[in-house]
Amino acid sequence: MAARKKATRPTPPDDVTQHAHKIADAVAEAWYGIHGSGRLEVPVSVVAVLAAAPQKSSQGADVTDIMLQWSPDDFVDYATNVWRSVIQHRPESTHLLYPILGWWFDEIDTDTRRHVHAVARAALRAGQVDLTGTDRRFEVDLLGTVLTVLRPTSALKAQGQFYTPPGVGAVMADLSNVEEGGSVEDPTMGTGGLFRAVAEVMRQKGQRPSTMRWVGCDLDGLAVACATVNSLIWGLGRDIVFHVGSAFTANWEIAATAQRDHLREIAARVQKTKYRLRLLGMWPEQ
């Protein structure tokens, strides 16, 4: 892999909302500049996989500087490995994440690899890892910001998408008076901004968001996929019940819970089978 000259990066904004918008603007400029339009699941997924990167490596090196030296193939390899890890550890969420992870496992042509790489470099230069690779990630809905910036205003209006502003979400969270072990439901959750606000209030009170049940629904499958990634970014735990569809559908929460639990059971059976085959020498050691 040929080394590139170390890129000069500006200092990220102190305000996390401004920082998120800076990243989103950079991603949109890169995507629309090189690709044109459509396929928003691609740039959104690039931002999602970058959220798995820490700010510093185990040796203390700056991860952004390392990743900026990667080739398109290097980044695609990284992304597919991230999604494989997510599927392995959170199999019950795979169907929710499919809109942004499924295409990584198709044959990715050279042009798409180049487009993905351009978006990744734009997000990195805008300081994404300095946000999502630190505790600042708890303070903002980056994926929601990216999705809003990528989508034309006309499309947002047509789909009736108006995400809860952070300030409004914080007020609602303060008024919700949630306690550990409780539940929070948002029937029009979008990318999960209200959940983030509630989790932030809980942390300020010394409570653990991972003890909660988070129940959400939205018509937009891409937004629900983002909310699912956000549940990982924000440390919401594993009691996630999300559904793509109308909140007016009868018993949607029961159906979503049953589907989640069924996928967990299937994954557990698969792991048990692998273990037995490995004991018999019929499955390769990892």
UniProtKB/TrEMBL annotation:
What InterPro entries would the database entry show? DNA_methylase_A-5, SAM-dependent_MTases_sf, Type-I_RE_MTase_Subunit
SUPFAM superfamilies noted in UniProt? S-adenosyl-L-methionine-dependent methyltransferases
Q: For the DNA methylase adenine-specific domain, which residue ranges apply?
A: 155-253
Keywords linked to the UniProt accession: Methyltransferase, Transferase
- Domain of life of the native organism: Bacteria
GO BP annotation list: methylation
What GO MF terms are annotated?
Answer: DNA binding; N-methyltransferase activity
Q: Which Pfam families match?
A: N6_Mtase
Q: Which PANTHER family match?
A: TYPE I RESTRICTION ENZYME HINDI METHYLASE SUBUNIT, TYPE I RESTRICTION ENZYME HINDVIIP M PROTEIN-RELATED
Name of the molecule in the record: N-6 DNA Methylase
Tell me what organism the protein belongs to.
Kibdelosporangium aridum
